[in-house]
Structure formats: C-alpha cells, structure tokens
Specification:
SH3 type barrels; alpha+beta; five-stranded antiparallel beta sheet; 3 domains; 11 helices; about 475 residues; six-stranded antiparallel beta sheet; endopeptidase fold (from Nostoc punctiforme); about 25% strand
Length: about 475
C-alpha cells in the first residue's frame, strides 16, 4: 500500500524538485548544531521566527488553496470516510447497554502498569482500581435514553472518570497518561453513561469519546443542542485564544476562554440600549453561550466578547498567508499533552489552525496520519531513503508530516533545509560533539526537519510514517 501510494506521486515530487532548481541531495549524515545557530536549534535564524518571513517566500500567498465549497466537500468526505469522526445525529435515541459498554471499554484499556503521581511516588494499585471501578459498568441498563448536551467551559476529556493525574515515571510529571483531549464551549455531546459517583459523563463528541466532568455540560433537547451556532450571525475565534469579559453578574460566562476556530453565535438584533451583565455592549460582540443551571439543565445566555479580540465574521480563507499567520499565533505556547494546561499538543495545534478555516481533522496523530479523507503519502519499512527525500523535497507550506506520536506543519525551505512549525515536548539534534542533544523545546517551535533526531542513529525523515495534504481532490 505504502509503496503504491508513493509511486503515484513520486514522479510529480521529482519534477517539482527539478522545477524549483534543486536536485535531490546526496544522502548524508544530518547537519549538527553550529556555534552560530540561534537558540541552540540547527540552522535557526532570528528572522525565521516571524510568519512574515515565510509568507514573503510564497509565490502566491493569497491564492485560495480551497474555496468554501471545496472545504465543505472536504468536510463531508472526512465525515463519510474517517471512522474517528462521529456523526452524533446517527446515535440512536435509545441506547443499547451492550453498545454503551463496548464504547467505554474500547476508549481506554484497564491499566496493568505501575503509575506515579505528582508527588513522584508510586500510586497504589487499589487507588488505580478505584478510579477504573468508578466507570460504573455494572450500572449500565439494558436500554437507556440518550441525553444531549452542550459543553459550557473548556473541559478535559479523561480516560477514566477522575482528575487523578498519572505518569509513567517518577521524574515525568508533564504528560498525564489519563488526559485524552479537551472539549470547548459550544461543543455538542451525546451522554452515553454516568459514573458511579455521579460526577462524570461518558460522552460522544464529534471527534472523541471519553469522560468529562458533569459540571461542564448542560443537558438539553436534541434540537437545541444540534442547532446551536447554526444561524447566519457568528464570530470565529481567529486568535490563539480569546476571552469573554469579566462579569461578576454572570460568572458562568466570565473570562471564558475560547480557543482558535471556535464558532460562537452573535445576537445581532440585541438592542444597543440593553446592557449585558452590567455593561453596555457597543464595544463588544453580544454573543450567546451555553451554561449549566443548578439542576444540570442547559440554558443559553448573552455574553460579551470584546471587539478588540482576534475574531472574524466567517471562517478565514484558506491561503498560504493565512495558514502561516494562524500557525505563528501559537509560537512559544507551552506544550500541553491532550490539551493540558489550557494549551494544546501537536495534533491539537494543527487541528486548531485548520479549524480556523472551518476544516475538520481527526483529533489524534494516529488518526490524522492515516485519514483516507486527505491526500496521503505513506511510508513503511520498504520506503527507500531516496523516496523519503523526494517526498520531503515536494512538500508545500501547510503539509502535515507524521512520525510515530507526532505531527509537524511545513512552512518553507531555506538553504537545503525543510522548516516546520510544531508543538513538541521534546526535540533533539546532533550537538557540536556529534552526540544527540535533547533540546527540551516543550512548546510551539520552529525547527528544520532533516536534522531532527528520533534516536541516536535515526532522523525524523527516517521515521516518517505519512505526509498529509489538504487540497483539491483533482489537483494531482
């Protein structure tokens, strides 16, 4: 399969390299750090840290990569072909108990390894067992009515119904292995089950199934949930984040974080003379947000989003300029495994860049990299070094490059190196002495691809599993 996919596009990639005036380089050892390299990253210069540098290198920075109709078609293809994307409307109104149990059990395996806590101490097996038991599998009824909800606050998605953070080793308290992802204000969910302690829901969202704290979900009818945000007036968050204004009158929508690509409905007919939560609204967008009432029910209330916030009246046009601009808005943000720390990880990073254009991507690298809805070049053990290099030479800004457990976005080429922007908790190069050096990038960083080391002897190029591109389906 991989060789066949590569052979389809290899002639084009080779031709592209020749048209650009660069023949395939001789295969050689990866470039090592030099004393003049900026910030201990191979080849990095200060000006590479500005989106404008890479935009100015584009031949047609404002040319549409996909127009709105093509993006809609791409999303339809994603929802049709990719099994990691869930059509919530297709979940039956009456849930079968055996199906619910299957969804919960396949979402996370029962742990068998030793975990460590934030105190660096081993976590007792009985503590782990109690968290697993809190799933309440024995409480699943033979049949139950599906419940529908909107997420009211940025909320962690967890492998098990607990806030307990678990780590693989005593010295690593950054990557919580039970942190799966996050949901965002306005996300629709179908509630499949409730935890034994009554504090968690197991939910299906469009891109993930996992546990979320009940306090972040308001339960309503299906029509209200699925129609939220479907009107003609809305704002798209185009900054890395935006926040609603502080409002002590309605703390449920005060200082609420809204991440890149979130779509919030605007109450365009709101009378200018009517204050919102103690503030006159002419300097804001009056938006509508979901909240959870004390009884757990859903309500929709007005909130204020400052006009100074980085937002737009529609999804951004998908152009090279906008792709690079959006990516660099995250530069320097701390890496957050599974959307920890109110930030994001590598796949969340690229997902939210593309979300600002209205494009749906799978949540995890394992699904993104093999998605049949995208234009994929696949690699395997039989892929030669020359084939890998040809694919790298043919990459375009916005292309997504996958190695096991990680994804990067291409931004351009300079002096024989292919440059990426990516959200990484690691990163390593060969040092001045030729030995591998851990860079501890731990955030959104700009690095070259070719010198990045996956081990003492293998480069990222050696370990590439897939390259994915979002483009017109007839653009061969």
């Amino acid at each position: 399969m991989s060789a066949r996919l590569l052979s389809r596009r290899l002639p084009l990639l080779l031709a592209t390299a020749l048209l650009l005036g660069s023949s395939l380089p001789a295969l050689s050892a990866p470039r090592a750090l030099a004393a003049e390299d900026h910030a201990a990253v191979v080849g990095l210069r200060e000006d590479y840290l500005a989106a404008s540098y890479w935009i100015n290198r584009l031949e047609q920075a404002d040319a549409l990569i996909l127009d709105r109709a093509a993006i809609n078609a791409q999303n339809a293809r994603m929802r049709s072909l990719d099994s990691s994307i869930h059509d919530l409307r297709q979940i039956p109104a009456t849930l079968r108990g055996d199906w619910v149990r299957e969804q919960i059990e396949k979402s996370a395996s029962v742990p068998t390894r030793q975990y460590f806590g934030q105190d660096h101490q081993a976590i007792d097996a009985a503590v782990i067992s109690a968290q697993v038991d809190n799933r309440g599998l024995g409480n699943i009824a033979g049949q139950a009515a599906a419940r529908y909800g909107l997420v009211t606050h940025r909320a962690d998605l967890r492998a098990f119904p607990t806030t307990l953070r678990v780590f693989n080793s005593a010295g690593d308290t950054d990557i919580d292995r039970w942190q799966e992802s996050a949901l965002f204000p306005g996300d629709a969910v179908v509630v499949l089950h409730e935890s034994a302690d009554g504090n968690w829901y197991f939910v299906a969202s469009e891109r993930y199934q996992a546990w979320v704290e009940k306090k972040h979900v308001g339960i309503g009818d299906a029509a209200t949930v699925f129609n939220y945000g479907q009107g003609k007036d809305f704002r798209i968050i185009t900054g890395a984040t935006a926040h609603t204004v502080h409002t002590p009158e309605e703390p449920r929508v005060s200082n609420l974080q809204l991440d890149m690509g979130i779509k919030v409905p605007v109450l365009a007919d709101w009378p200018a003379a009517n204050n919102v939560n103690g503030q006159q609204g002419h300097a804001h967008w009056v938006i509508q947000l979901p909240v959870r009432n004390d009884d757990g029910s859903l309500a929709l209330v007005p909130a204020l989003l400052p006009r100074s916030a980085d937002t737009a009246a529609d999804y951004l046009p998908l152009t090279g300029r906008n792709l690079l601009t959006q990516a660099f808005k995250f530069l320097g943000e701390r890496y957050g495994w599974g959307h920890s720390y109110n930030t994001r990880d590598c796949s969340g990073f690229v997902s939210e860049i593309y979300r600002s254009f209205g494009i749906v991507l799978p949540r995890n690298t394992s699904s993104q990299g093999i998605s049949p809805a995208l234009d994929r070049i696949a690699f395997d053990a039989g892929s030669s070094a020359a084939q890998r290099q040809a694919a790298v030479d043919g990459m375009q800004p916005g292309d997504l490059v996958y190695i096991p457990g990680h994804v990067m976005m291409a931004i351009g080429k300079v002096d024989g190196l292919t440059w990426m922007i990516h959200d990484t908790n690691g990163g390593s190069f060969l040092g001045l002495d030729g030995k591998r050096v851990a860079a501890q990038l731990n955030g959104v960083s700009v690095t070259p691809l070719e010198p990045m080391m996956a081990s003492d002897t293998a480069t990222y190029v050696d370990r590439m599993t897939n390259i994915q591109r979002i483009r017109k389906t007839n653009d061969k």
